[in-house]
Amino acid sequence: MQALRDYQRAQGAQLEASLPVTFGNDVQAIAAVDRSVAIYDRSHWGRLRLGGGDRLTFLHNQSTNDLKRLQPGQGCETVILTSTARTIDLVSAYVTEAEILLLTSPNRRQQLLTWLDRYIFFGDKVELTDLSDSTACFSLLGPDSTTLLQNLGATDLPQTLDSHTTAELSGLSVRIAAGSGLSAQGYTLITDRADGAALWAVLAEAKAIPLGERAWEQLRVLQGRPVPEAELTEDYNPLEAGLWDTVSFNKGCYIGQETIARLNTYNGVKQQLWGLKMSRAAQPGTPLFLGEQKVGVLTSAVATADGFFGLGYLKTKAGGAGLTVSIDGFAAVVADVPFLSRLQQSAAMA
Q1: Closest CA to 326 of 274, 284, 276
Q2: Which residue stretches of the chain have pLDDT < 50?
Q3: Cβ atoms of 278 and 303 closer than 8 Å
């Protein structure tokens, strides 16, 4: 990765723990997500390979979505749960002829390796491999992402979320998946780690604006993607976290399925994740109040060019978008965020 980091430094990257925190252009990079195209380095996210003849059935039984319906070139978002339906991670699963490639959150790679391995029993035709250190991963975000890739020679780009293909970009072999990791239009690119610096340079020279961790965190919160250790913890399940579109209610048994089925059948979702337009800064963990009653908790908060914005869990009975709550004595307005799905949305899409 040294060559990649050297190139990023030349672009103005400020590194912390070897990650580009900012390129000194946060406002420009965030604007590019809406108006042109930005590039974000996701190489510190985990990439796990599932091989063997039972791989599809195995992952189907370990997560919330219907994996058995997928054909090579297709993919989906799915949630790995504990037996009590608490969230371990939201992952992207890309199905090929020979394997399933999982893209995990940065701080969940080792936990998922251990968790999945414990459910591979003698006789199971499943092979679990960590590809994180041998691959690089980037996301293109913005309306010009498709044009950029086409100009570099990629044709027949995938259109459906998490569908994917392989392509040659300036002589580099790249797996291209539809979806940016956020609700913004874009693609996720995975390549051999030895080609990471060259691919980043190709994309940068094609006018993709580099986007660092600080800008990504702003976008993540504004768009509402929940992450482990904030919104995805053992305190919450995927329905509360607004991940209804990642859950199949017809696939049969999987780890955590009984709890999810009861919540759905008996309308048991007692709290939901929402955006929060805040008038001041506040720390995650700060309670949300409606009058004198505690109705939720703040889980993430960022400063943006338009003010402060957060994510937080709110009791379902308290209300939803448009409700005004108080955080640490100041007002916050509950808001919809585009990444999340809810019961009403999922029913309308069905």
Answers
A1: 276
A2: 345-350
A3: no
What pLDDT is stored for residue 170 in this prediction? 93
* Residue in the block written with tokens 């980091």: 5
Alpha helices of 36-106 — where are they, by DSSP H?
Answer: 55-62
Tell me what pLDDT residue 343 has.
76
pLDDT reported for residue 25: 97
Residues 6+ apart with CB under 8 A from 29: 23, 38, 209, 210, 211, 212, 215
CA end-to-end span of the chain, whole Å? 43
Cα-based distances in Å from 128 to 48, 50, 58, 90, 200: 7, 5, 11, 18, 28
pLDDT at 145: 98
Alpha-helical segments (H) within the chain: 2-10, 26-35, 55-62, 109-117, 145-151, 196-205, 213-223, 257-265, 343-349
- 224 exposure class (CB count in 10 Å sphere: 0-12, 13-18, 19+): buried
- For residues 208 and 38, the answer to whether their CB atoms sit within 8 Å is yes
**What does the block give as tokens for 286?**
């700060």
Measure the CA–CA gap between 323 and 325, rounded to whole angstroms.
6
Instruction: Give ∠ CA 9-11-14 in degrees, rounded to 5.
Output: 45
